[in-house]
Amino acid sequence: MNELDFALIGQRIKQVRSDKKLTQEYLANVTGVNVSHISNIETNKVKVSLTLLVGICNALDVTMDYLLENEYHTPNSTLEKELINTMKDMPKDKLETLLRIAKVL
User: Are 25 and 59 in contact (CB under 8 A)?
Assistant: First the structure.
């Protein structure tokens, strides 16, 4: 098994935090660590622990698979599964419309 890309995980944490207009201080307070530790995770100076990663996900209201998306090596991504589940109960005419839209994209 290859090493996880902790730099990318840190970047994703920072991106989500910034998009939600949250500070490192907020994230540190909610997760029970100091601000420098959050900064070090975001800049890849330290590796985030699994326990803290779960806390960060809860604080940012994102799923683990979102932050670790590039680490999965399965043919079906979470996004693909969600699309399939959404389409399962769609009427045929809406499925045909969706297919035409997807082909244009």
Answer: no
